[in-house]
């Protein structure tokens, strides 16, 4: 159970998001406690990716507030009005949030090591030697110590995704967003990536927000599952509970289709 | 203020600029017709696969394309003194741009799916008919934006004709400037007239590109 | 014919001077064009209208008004009232070439930056890189190889455009062709030699640009490195690297 004394790591308060006439999120409320591992499930196009992108400021919400550690992130209420928070202050929150993408998005103009140390050195101001040592540790952790100086384009998809995970972890994020990180991979490469993520879940207390179609993985790693449909959360429960006895009819339908 | 821009000069030079613009447009149209036809022939010849033909044609295309149009114009005008400069100029413009257009056609022909050739073979169509009835109609559609872009580009290069004594728009401006020791209005107006024609045309071509894309 | 060759040999130093002037125009024009291209190209995708609109106007203006008009505007109009700016003819040529081809290249810069996959922008944002850092370290290194082939085309166009310099009293390669013709009284000989020299310059520049393009591509993990190309032996394809 989340500790009620501490502020939730992530909090959505009445968040709305439209693309033109397409209302994707409509007054969405939910929160994630620090250290929680939350999996978002729901039909395609329901807005799971959009939630993660809002948290990464890759999209801008039309209504409502997003708070990180109880502090307004992209917008705040000032004199009863919702106003955008300037980029400088957003940046301070954003650097505590990391994201791993479906398509890896490694920088092809940099080596594996350079991908990992670029932001710690130039964004956080970590000394170079320290950043390299840290990166080597992380590469060890994701099982790619020997690829330190390789070109990203020479790696398999699974290896690239593990580098991308190391790159995100190098920023020492408090919150890690994972958007279908295995769905662009050949089936035989999925296991390695999931093993790395399982290891992170076991050895760190990073708050994780996971979108995945790997229900088995969701079951093993997460301690809460949010079923998402029609711009709202329609069911939330412990994975054992939701996967074995879903209450909501839509959840039952959805799980029948994917399991 | 009068020093900067004199409307009397502007008005005086305007009629000859418009006359020059007529020559400029005429040269562009004739040049582009030559380029469009010759470019297509070059593209087809270069696809023939006969080394003895494709190699020299390829070299010639490369040579013409990477040497200055201006020098080619002056050269041709010195060689073919029996023809009027405007005719020589249009021919050189046409040949120079044919080398660009041949690339546009090549890309257009390459963009026709391979299945179309195979279907033509399956139907036992003769090669000439395949080209005429199947490939070219599809290829040429793809080449229209390229044709438009090069027409605009040729239009802006017609002032080179001034150096072989064709009185197109720039030559008219320069003649007025030299005669009156007053270049400001003449050359500026010539530039603005180029812009006035080429910019709307390029907007049209861009729209066509977007529609075809 | 051998007389002609003798005259050509005698005129070789003059040919050298002509080529030098053409190369000065080319390099000067290209450097200015590159500068103009990046300034206008980056401004052309700025968020504020105050940068975007002026950049578009300048680009369309220099693309639309014809190089010939621009160079002679600088040459004939600027020295007269009300400007009284007498430019050195070489500066005149370089500025006209740089602005004209810079405007074309600005579109190349803008288009190539837009062609870098959005995932790269987003990954950089997710690492909290600022806009300048992101552009300099992530986006431009990837846009650069996309720009190269188009820059090569423009560079060859620029060399060709530089032949106008003869008419602003510069003794460039084009001017030399005229001298050679007067010397030999052989139009065909003089122009064939002259055009071949232009061709050689264009060819050499294309080779250099292709090498730079290969290097730029290799830098983003596409194609062989320049060293592998120059070694001329087929590069070893390390398939073991691709799969674990
Ligand atoms: N940039 C955009 N412009 C317009 N519409 C968008 C954009 N991004 C997302 N959408 C729309 O928003 C809705 C939610 O998209 P989102 O990607 O968040 O869904 P998802 O739940 O992640 O789906 P999936 O499981 O297929 O990944 C969809 O209807 C999509 O078409
Ligand atoms: Mg998604």
UniProtKB/TrEMBL annotation, chain A:
Entry annotated with the keyword Membrane: yes
For the keyword Membrane, the answer is: yes
Gene Ontology cellular-component annotations: plasma membrane
What keywords sit in the KW lines? Amino-acid transport, ATP-binding, Cell membrane, Membrane, Nucleotide-binding, Transport
Question: What PROSITE patterns does this protein's entry cite?
Answer: ABC_TRANSPORTER_1, ABC_TRANSPORTER_2
Gene3D superfamilies on file:
P-loop containing nucleotide triphosphate hydrolases
**Cellular location of this protein?**
Cell membrane
- Occurrences of domain ABC transporter (ranges): 10-255
Q: Which Pfam families match?
A: ABC_tran
TM region positions: none
The entry lists its GO molecular-function terms as: ABC-type amino acid transporter activity; ATP binding; ATP hydrolysis activity
The membrane topology of this protein is: Peripheral membrane protein
Q: What family does the database annotate?
A: Belongs to the ABC transporter superfamily.
Task: Provide the protein name.
Answer: L-cystine ABC transporter ATP-binding protein YecC
**Record organism:** Promicromonospora citrea
TrEMBL record, chain B:
Entry's InterPro entries?
AA_ABC_transptr_permease_3TM (IPR010065), ArtM/GltK/GlnP/TcyL/YhdX-like (IPR043429), Ectoine_EhuD (IPR014341), MetI-like (IPR000515), MetI-like_sf (IPR035906)
Positions of the ABC transmembrane type-1 domain: 21-205
Q: Where does it sit, as one GO cellular component term?
A: ATP-binding cassette (ABC) transporter complex
Q: Which Pfam families match?
A: BPD_transp_1
Q: How does it sit in the membrane?
A: Multi-pass membrane protein
Q: Which keywords are on file for this protein?
A: Amino-acid transport, Cell membrane, Membrane, Transmembrane, Transmembrane helix, Transport
PROSITE patterns reported for this sequence: ABC_TM1
In alphabetical order, the GO MF annotations are: transmembrane transporter activity
Q: Which GO terms describe its biological process?
A: amino acid transport
Q: Where is the protein localized?
A: Cell membrane
User: Which residues constitute the signal peptide according to the record?
Assistant: none
Would you tell me the protein name for this molecule? Ectoine/hydroxyectoine ABC transporter permease subunit EhuD
Q: What is its main location?
A: membrane
Where exactly are the transmembrane stretches of this chain?
A: 20-45, 57-76, 82-100, 160-177, 183-205
Species the sequence originates in: Promicromonospora citrea
UniProtKB/TrEMBL annotation, chain C:
Superkingdom, taxonomy of origin: Bacteria
This protein's membrane topology, according to the annotation, is: Multi-pass membrane protein
Per the UniProt entry, what is one GO biological process? amino acid transport
Q: Which GO terms describe its cellular component?
A: ATP-binding cassette (ABC) transporter complex
Enumerate the UniProt keywords alphabetically: Amino-acid transport, Cell membrane, Membrane, Transmembrane, Transmembrane helix, Transport
- State if Cell membrane is listed as a keyword: yes
**InterPro entries attached to this UniProt entry:** AA_ABC_transptr_permease_3TM, ArtM/GltK/GlnP/TcyL/YhdX-like, Ectoine_EhuC, MetI-like, MetI-like_sf
Family membership, please give it: Belongs to the binding-protein-dependent transport system permease family.
Please identify the protein, giving its name as recorded. Answer: Ectoine/hydroxyectoine ABC transporter permease subunit EhuC
């Amino acid at each position: 159970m989340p500790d009620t004394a501490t502020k939730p790591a992530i909090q959505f308060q009445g968040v709305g998001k439209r693309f033109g006439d397409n209302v994707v999120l409509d007054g969405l409320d939910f929160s994630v406690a620090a250290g929680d591992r939350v999996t978002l499930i729901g039909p395609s196009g329901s807005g799971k990716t959009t939630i993660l992108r809002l948290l990464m400021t890759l999209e801008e919400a039309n209504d409502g507030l997003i708070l990180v550690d109880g502090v307004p992130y992209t917008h705040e209420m000032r004199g009863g009005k919702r106003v955008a928070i300037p980029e400088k202050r957003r940046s301070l929150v954003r650097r505590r949030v990391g994201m791993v993408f479906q398509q890896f998005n490694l920088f092809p103009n940099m080596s594996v090591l350079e991908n990992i140390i670029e932001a710690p050195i130039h964004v956080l101001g970590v000394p170079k030697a320290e950043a390299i040592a840290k990166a080597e540790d992380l590469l060890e952790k994701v099982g790619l110590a020997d690829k330190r100086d390789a070109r990203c384009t020479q790696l398999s998809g699974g290896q690239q995704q593990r580098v991308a995970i190391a790159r995100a972890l190098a920023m020492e994020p408090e919150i890690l967003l994972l958007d279908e990180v295995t769905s662009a991979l050949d089936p035989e490469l999925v296991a390695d990536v999931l093993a790395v993520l399982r290891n992170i879940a076991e050895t760190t207390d990073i708050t994780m927000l996971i979108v995945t179609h790997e229900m088995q993985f969701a079951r093993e790693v997460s301690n809460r599952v949010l079923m998402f449909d029609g711009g709202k959360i329609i069911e939330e429960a412990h994975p054992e509970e939701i996967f074995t006895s879903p209450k909501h009819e839509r959840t039952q339908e959805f799980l029948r289709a994917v399991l | 203020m009068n020093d900067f821009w004199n409307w009397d000069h502007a008005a005086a030079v305007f009629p000859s600029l418009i006359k020059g613009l007529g020559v400029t447009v005429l040269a562009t149209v004739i040049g582009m017709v030559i380029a469009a036809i010759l470019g297509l022939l070059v593209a087809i010849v270069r696809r023939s696969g006969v080394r003895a033909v494709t190699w020299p044609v390829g070299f010639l295309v490369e040579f013409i394309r990477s040497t200055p149009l201006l020098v080619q114009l002056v050269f041709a005008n010195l060689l073919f003194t029996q023809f009027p400069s405007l005719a020589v100029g249009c021919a050189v413009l046409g040949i120079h741009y044919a080398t660009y257009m041949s690339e546009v056609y090549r890309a257009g022909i390459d963009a026709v799916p391979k299945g179309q050739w195979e279907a033509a073979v399956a139907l036992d169509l003769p090669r000439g008919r395949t080209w005429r009835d199947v490939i070219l109609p599809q290829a040429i559609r793809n080449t229209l934006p390229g044709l438009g872009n090069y027409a605009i580009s040729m239009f802006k290069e017609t002032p080179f004709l001034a150096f072989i004594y064709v009185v197109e728009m720039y030559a008219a401006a320069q003649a007025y400037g030299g005669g009156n020791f007053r270049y400001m209005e003449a050359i500026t107006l010539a530039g603005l007239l180029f812009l006035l024609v080429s910019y709307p045309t390029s907007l049209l071509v861009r729209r066509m590109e977007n529609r075809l894309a | 014919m051998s007389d002609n060759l003798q005259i050509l040999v005698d005129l070789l130093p003059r040919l050298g001077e002509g080529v030098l002037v053409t190369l000065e125009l080319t390099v000067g024009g290209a450097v200015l064009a590159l500068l103009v291209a990046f300034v206008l190209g980056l401004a052309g995708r700025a968020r504020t209208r105050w940068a975007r609109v002026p950049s578009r106007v300048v680009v369309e203006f220099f693309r639309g008004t014809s190089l010939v008009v621009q160079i002679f505007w600088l040459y004939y109009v600027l020295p007269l009232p009300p400007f009284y700016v007498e430019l050195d003819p070489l500066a005149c040529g370089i500025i006209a070439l740089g602005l004209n081809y810079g405007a074309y290249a600005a579109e190349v810069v803008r288009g190539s930056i837009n062609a870098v996959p959005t995932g790269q922008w987003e990954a950089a944002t997710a690492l909290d890189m600022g806009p300048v850092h992101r552009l300099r370290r992530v986006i431009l290194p990837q846009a650069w190889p996309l720009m190269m082939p188009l820059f090569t085309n423009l560079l060859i166009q620029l060399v060709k455009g530089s032949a106008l310099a003869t008419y602003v009293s510069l003794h460039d390669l084009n001017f030399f062709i005229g001298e050679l013709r007067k010397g030999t009284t052989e139009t065909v000989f003089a122009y064939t030699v002259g055009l071949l020299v232009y061709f050689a310059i264009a060819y050499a520049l294309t080779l250099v640009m292709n090498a730079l393009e290969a290097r730029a591509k290799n830098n983003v993990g596409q194609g062989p490195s320049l060293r592998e190309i120059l070694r001329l032996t087929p590069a070893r394809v390390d398939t073991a690297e691709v799969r674990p």
